[in-house]
Structure formats: C-alpha cells, structure tokens
Amino acid sequence: MTTFRELGIFPETAEALEAVGITSPFPIQELTLPVALSGSDVIGQAKTGT
Length: 50
Description:
The protein is mostly helical.
C-alpha cells in the first residue's frame, strides 16, 4: 500500500495527515497526485463520483 509520503507530498502535509490518522491515499489520489505534483493539470472521477 502506498503512503502519501511515497507519493511525494510536502513532509509537513504528510505529518499533518498522519497526526489525524490519515496515512494511505484513496485510489484516485494515488493515481492523480504524482501527475498533479509534476505540474500537469488533472481531472478524474472516483468511484464515489467526485
């Protein structure tokens, strides 16, 4: 399972997420964060419809 840290978000953001018990991204986040962090625009649709 991938963590937010492995996806390359800012360490401070990862720490804030971990502080509230969030360590693993949803599948849509796992797929889109690397693309967004590379500077590309992203549009996606998760199973929840968001």
